[in-house]
Amino acid sequence: MSGGPGGISMDELQLAARNHGMPLEALRYDVTPVGLHYLLIHFDIPAADDDSWRLELDGQVDRPLVLRMDDLRRRPRVTAPVTLECAGNGRARMDPRPVSQPWLEEAVGTAEWTGTPLRPLLEEAGIGEGAVEVLFAGADRGLQAELEHDYERSLPLAEAMRPEVMLAWGINGQPLPPQHGYPLRLVVPGWYGMTSVKWLRRISVLTEPFDGYQQTGTYLLHTSEDDPGTPVTRIQPRSLLLPPGIPVFESRERLCAPGHHLLTGRAWSGLAPVARVEVSVDGGASWQPAQLEPQPSPWAWAGWSLPWDATPGSYELCCRATDAAGNTQPLDPPWNTGGYANNAVQRVKVTVRP
Residues 6 or more apart from 315 whose CB is under 8 A from it? Predict the structure, then answer.
């Protein structure tokens, strides 16, 4: 379903009031403060208690497991910076606009997640013959497309066995807050955020591909209603600019004084490490290479900067990232019915005046 040319619907307004993006000025932080990290909650935040929570591991395994939170915390612990981005980030920039959570560019954040790797847990359970996928079930339940279901997503077995995939109980040195999946969630570096199931209570090893709604009824790239679509998986390369100067309240257009400015931002990709970032001050007509900082991990954003000597006038600032596999942000988004994976370049209007 596509949005009209005017404002958002009441349904979209309700979604926008429940969820929130990261204010772009928070790009100044290497690690996003928890309260500024983007948030999308599909159904309701379920009631949860650390003492009574159980994680079940079943399906095509030799030794089914039931684990308490204390059992998980006694396992080997890791902490890693990971950038998570919503698959619908940029949806509201598409024309016609698909109707759903109306994200602009702010559905992203980078946190230091603490937990235990998933792979050793699967190995301990013993993956049985014929296993092809691993299913992750959350405790949040609701109705979508007239289907009542728990929020569930699966990963191909090879992806679930990647060493960086973790079961997380902490964020930025704190316990997970309720809205981020307390007491336990999945974190899948490199994949869009819908894969990192929150309020995780069951893991099942499957011998057939999972066909639940959140896997096959949505998060697909359809170019038309008749297109069967391709699954949304890895995060496409993206760069964002920390808007310079001060904002106009309603439009968020920027006002800057003439003179020297240091343009800064962040870049990331779930396909390969970031290789370069380019910046344009003329709406993409010409590009300059930015100074790229090292990534703290292959799965966390890299900082970048570019000096800009601004003279009075009107400008449209853009930035674009290219990863080591050669994937580059497009100037215009490839349209799809769900508004997914729109990694078109950001455009920031700036007026330079005394």
Answer: 281, 282, 349, 350, 351, 352
State the virtual CA torsion across 324, 168, 230, 145 in degrees, nearest 10: -150
293-342 pLDDT per residue, tens = 999 999 999 999 999 999 999 999 999 999 999 999 999 888 999 999 99
Pick the CATH number of 10-218 from 2.30.130.10, 3.40.50.1580, 3.90.420.10, 3.40.50.1100: 3.90.420.10
SS3 107: coil
Q: Read off the tokens for 86.
A: 């919503």
- The two tokens of residue 327 are 């994937």
Residue 110, token pair as written in the block: 């980078």
Q: How many other C-beta atoms can be found within 10 angstroms of the C-beta atom of residue 126?
A: 13
> How far apart are the C-alpha atoms of 169 and 166, rounded to whole Å?
10
**b or e along 184-215 (b: 16 or more beta carbons within 10 Å of the residue's beta carbon)?**
bbbbbbbbbbbbbbbbbbbbbbbeeebebbbb
How many Å apart are CA 160 and CA 93, to the nearest integer?
32
